[in-house]
Amino acid sequence: MMKTPLLILCSTLMMFGCSSENDSTNMPPVNVSNFSGIYPKPGIGYVGDPMPFWDEGKMNMFYLHDGRDGQVGFHPYNLMTTDNLVDWEFHGTVIPFVNNNNSTDLALGTGSIIRDDDGIYHAYYTGWNGRNSQLPHNEIIQHATSTDKLNWTKHPEFGFYGDHDDFRDPYVLFMPDFNEYWMIVTTRNPLTNQPILARYTSTDLVNWGDRTVFYSADDITWNMECPTLIKIGDYWYLSFSRQGSGNERTLHYVYTDNLHASVDETTWKKPDQHLFDGPGQYAARIEKFDSSHIVSGWVGTKKFNSDAGEYEWAGNLVTHEVYQADNGELFAREPNAYRELTSKAAVLNETKKSSSIEFNGKEILFSGDGYESISFSPERGKTSRLSMTISSNGEIDHYGFIFSLDGKSPRQGNTKLEFNQKNNKINLFVNNLGVASIIASIDFVFPIEDYNITLYSEGDIITAYVDSKVAFTSRIPSSAGKEWGIFSYQSSIRLSNLSFNTN
């Protein structure tokens, strides 16, 4: 529980009063839509950086709403809630931006939400204005309070700047071992311009001081955005999304079993498998969910709505369950609710295959003789799940899934998700104007023995879970309603325990 000197906070609020901009910030929340599925988005607009907050038996998924509506300001805090990760209720905007080029809240940026012992909710968020040169910096840490998570009062008198234009994404938590609150902030060293995560401390949730460099890494030059600091079992985990483009835009984590107030005394471990997903899940945060933990980020829309297009900012929410190994490492797997949602057995309707392939409905056997493929009809329901066990008696080069066949031969499929066991890579290939290129890739050491792959599909988004260790999410606009298939190259593999299910 949080330890907050509420009398100090209340008297401070009375002394300073509320923002003159509160006429625009106390907008009543509007329930705009509900959603059932695994990649939620509101009926209008898109999901940006999520700020998951587990409270009173429910996941409160605050997020930056991307309206793409041409307003002066942008990215208000919106809220959607769920108790099972598949049935979502949208509550609309709860902390708005201010449509004024002079406001520090012209746009809102990522933050975090906590509740104190007296039931007061505190939102710490980023105020952004890069259009007013009279402000000290582009970004400021802001504070708002609420009693119900829906109606918030901003307190700009508590806002504070750092010493750099990059100063955002505050993550606040109470540290009982130190009897104080910590705030982890994305920023840069003003002298060296090196990206860092800074730490501030407070005893009253209002006054923040004791700035220190909490984490830095010599091999990272982009900002470390949307940090999480969370304890699971005996270990502390620090996660952040590395800003950049392409494969650089991924979530990373380090961990330790001995967290000290002095950064110099804390030794962070970076596991070999330090990614939960590829660049298809960005700005993700780790949070408790009931008796487990999840990691939630977003998969962006694609520029020009093309498979080969770059990811745009915001899209649909993407959530995985994360679980802890005995040595403290974390891995990603499908939440149980996804499997329960896709409980209706379906049939794989073969449309064509290589003559060397054996398929009996429950098992596919590839001979390993060059390139082989089998394709299936596009009927997949709103949400589908394809599960299989991979085994081999010989060499495995690479294999995977083909999307957007549209009557083409499987070898000419537009987009391929490749599991390259020879090089320990998971790759997404796109055939653009006759040229195939890798547009997303992560390292993954495949098991020597049998392992499982589960592929979820909903609309134009797919996620592959490999060996309950790592996920790989992609948006493939051309895939919806098209034939798809499975291919193998010089890989004598058996796909057994084959099951195909829909919602």
What structural keywords apply?
503 residues; mainly beta; 8-stranded antiparallel β-sheet; 35 strands; 4% helix; disordered N terminus
Task: Summarize it.
The chain is mostly beta strands. The protein is 4% helix and 50% strand. The chain is built from 3 helices and 35 strands.
Structural class label: mainly beta
Helix share bin: under 10%
Beta-strand residue fraction: over 45%
For the biggest sheet, the summary is: 8 strands, antiparallel
Query: Nearest-angstrom radius of gyration?
Result: 24 Å
Mean pLDDT: 91
Low-confidence stretches: 1-26
Describe the protein's architecture and organization:
It is a single chain. The chain has 503 residues and is mostly beta strands. It is built from three helices and 35 strands. It has helices at 6-16, 22-25, 336-341, and strands at 34-36, 46-55, 58-66, 77-82, 87-95, 107-115, 121-128, 139-146, 152-154, 167-175, 180-188, 195-202, 209-215, 224-232, 235-242, 251-256, 282-289, 292-302, 311-324, 330-333, 344-345, 350-353, 358-359, 364-365, 371-376, 383-392, 398-403, 415-420, 425-432, 435-443, 451-458, 461-466, 470-475, 484-489, 493-502. Strands 21, 23, 24, 26, 31, 32, 33 and 35 form an eight-stranded antiparallel β-sheet that branches. A seven-stranded antiparallel β-sheet has the order 22-25-34-27-28-29-30, with no helix packed on it. It is globular. Mean pLDDT is 91; it is low at 1-26.
